Amino acid sequence: MPENCDHNCAQCMEDCAERTEAAHDFSEKLNPLSSVKKVIGVVSGKGGVGKSLVTSLLAVAMNQRGYRTAIMDADITGSSIPKMFGIRERARSDQRGLFPVRSRTGIEIMSMNVLLQNDTDPVIWRGPLIAGVVKQFWTDVIWRDIDFMFIDMPPGTGDVPLTVFQSAAVDGIVVVTSPQELVSMIVEKAVNMAGMMNIPVIGIVENMSYFLCPDNGKKYKVFGDSHIDEIAKTHQLEVMARIPIDPSIALASDEGRIEELGIDWLDQLADQIERMEKTDD
């Protein structure tokens, strides 16, 4: 029993021997026409560290390895995935459900921005309504024969991440951070939340890790020395990738050409995710 237990089991996620009420099952079923083998959440404790970039690059990497991949953009008020893939069409629906939009290389994508009339229209909703839409992305969208679904989470540990963790069958999470000490501290919140939800952390990705000077080939730590190795060691995790500050990334994202980036920064992480699929064979 936790030291600060108030004996209100209905509001508690702990599975302890003193529980007097069974934990409520918040899991939701996929559309009957859907099939998703593995679900990976991409999270961070704060915004602006590159979750959408890592989500997109992972989906592209696994797609290039021959797997059918999908992205569920759960960042309802800050959707950016469609722009990174150059997607301008709207999602279709019929009596069976809602159909994701496909990228040029066949990655299936569902995002609030493929439902809005204009992708610059603001989504001014309160938390419960946003969480409800995220649930519908899981239950109402027809995800056909997906090997790996990557969920781009909004920052923090609030309503929407909790809804995703409770509703969807998340197999693991990737934590994205940047080198600043403050951000590394916030990483612990995301890691601890995953622990409370009994969801394994696959690894940590540090974005904006360094700048590789094209003139002398030296790495410059623009944001100072990284503290992520200390956090990873504390939680017995592995830093799976360090993505540099590279103008080509911003250009490809802005122009909707994220699928054209020829990079290998996430190869180790992609290998680890691929092993998850093969373990179940």
Features:
eight-stranded mixed beta sheet, Rossmann fold, alpha/beta, single chain
Task: Please characterize this protein's 3D structure.
It is a single chain. By secondary structure, the chain is α/β, with parallel strands linked by helices. The protein is 30% helix and 18% strand. It is built from 8 helices and 12 strands. It has helices spanning 51-64, 81-84, 127-139, 159-167, 181-196, 228-234, 247-254, 267-279, and strands spanning 36-43, 69-73, 92-94, 97-99, 101-102, 108-110, 146-152, 172-177, 201-206, 211-212, 219-220, 239-242. The strands form 3 sheets. It has an 8-stranded mixed sheet with strand order 5-6-2-7-1-8-9-12, with helices on both faces.
* Biggest pleated sheet: 8 strands, mixed
Task: State the name of the first-level CATH class.
Answer: Alpha Beta
Distance from first to last alpha carbon:
38 Å
Separate helix tally: 8
Short description:
By secondary structure, the protein is an alpha/beta fold. Helix content is 30%, strand content 18%.
List the helices and strands and how they pair.
Layout: E1 36-43, H1 51-64, E2 69-73, H2 81-84, E3 92-94, E4 97-99, E5 101-102, E6 108-110, H3 127-139, E7 146-152, H4 159-167, E8 172-177, H5 181-196, E9 201-206, E10 211-212, E11 219-220, H6 228-234, E12 239-242, H7 247-254, H8 267-279
Parallel strand pairs: 1-7, 1-8, 2-6, 2-7, 8-9, 9-12
Antiparallel strand pairs: 3-4, 5-6, 10-11
Helix pairs in contact: 3-4
